[in-house]
Design goal:
The chain is mainly beta. The protein is built from 2 helices and 8 strands, in the order H-E-E-E-E-E-E-E-E-H.
Length: 206
C-alpha cells in the first residue's frame, strides 16, 4: 500500500513539475544573462581496515559547498561565465585532531541547454585552500580543479528556475611544506540551486 502511494505521489509530482516547466518560454536564448547559486551539504565517514578486517582508523567528514554563478548566452542555448566556489569542511582522522579546510576557487564554465530542461556543464579553475590542524598549525596551498555535470531545471516563473545538478569533480592540491605530496580529491556531487534570468534584449531596444 505504501509503495503504491509513493508511486502515485511520484507520478503526480513529476507531472506537475513538467506542466509548470512547460508554461513559460525559457530565457535561454542569445543575449540573456543569469545569476544565482547552488548548495551541497555533505556528511561522510571513511573506515580504514588492516589485513584481517581489523579496523585501523576512521575519518568523519562534514562540509558545505556553495557555487555562485554569473553566465551569459552568447548564442541560443549556449552560455559561458564565471563561477565562484566556496567550500568548508571538518575532518577528524586517526589522532582525533580536527582538520578544518576552507577553499575559494574561480572557475570559468560553459553550459549547453536543451529545451526540455536538461543541460550539461563543464568548468575548470584555480584557487586557494587553507587547512587548520587543531588550534595550531595552519597551511595554505594553491589548488586546481575541474568539474563536469548534467542538470535539470524547472522555471517557477518566467525568469526564475530551480535546478539540480549531478556532477563529478576532481581537485588537485600540492602541499608546500611537503613538496613530494600531491593530493587528489574525486567526488560525485548532487547540488540544488536557483538561478535568475535577465533579458538584455529589452534594454537594447529602448
Amino acid at each position: 500500500m505504501r509503495l503504491k502511494r509513493f508511486i502515485f505521489s511520484s507520478i503526480a509530482f513529476l507531472s506537475c513539475y513538467t506542466f509548470v516547466n512547460a508554461q513559460f518560454d525559457k530565457p535561454i536564448s542569445k543575449n540573456h544573462l543569469f545569476t544565482g547559486g547552488t548548495i551541497k551539504i555533505s556528511t561522510e565517514k571513511y573506515i580504514q581496515y588492516k589485513y584481517g578486517g581489523i579496523q585501523e582508523a576512521t575519518q568523519d567528514d562534514k562540509g558545505i559547498n556553495l557555487d555562485f554563478y554569473t553566465g551569459y548566452f552568447v548564442i541560443n542555448q549556449f552560455a559561458v561565465g564565471i563561477k565562484m566556489n566556496y567550500n568548508y569542511d571538518r575532518r577528524v582522522w586517526i589522532t582525533n585532531t580536527p582538520i578544518y579546510n576552507s577553499s575559494i576557487l574561480f572557475d570559468p564554465f560553459a553550459r549547453y541547454y536543451l529545451k526540455m530542461g536538461i543541460f550539461g556543464e563543464v568548468s575548470v579553475g584555480m584557487g586557494l585552500t587553507r587547512d587548520k590542524y587543531g588550534s595550531d598549525l595552519k597551511q595554505k596551498e594553491s589548488v586546481f580543479n575541474w568539474n563536469t555535470g548534467i542538470g535539470y531545471n524547472v522555471f517557477i516563473t518566467k525568469n526564475i528556475s530551480l535546478e539540480t545538478i549531478i556532477g563529478y569533480s576532481q581537485l588537485i592540491k600540492k602541499e608546500k611544506m611537503m613538496s613530494l605530496h600531491t593530493y587528489e580529491y574525486k567526488k560525485l556531487n548532487l547540488k540544488i540551486g536557483l538561478q535568475v534570468y535577465f533579458d538584455l534584449n529589452k534594454k537594447n531596444t529602448k
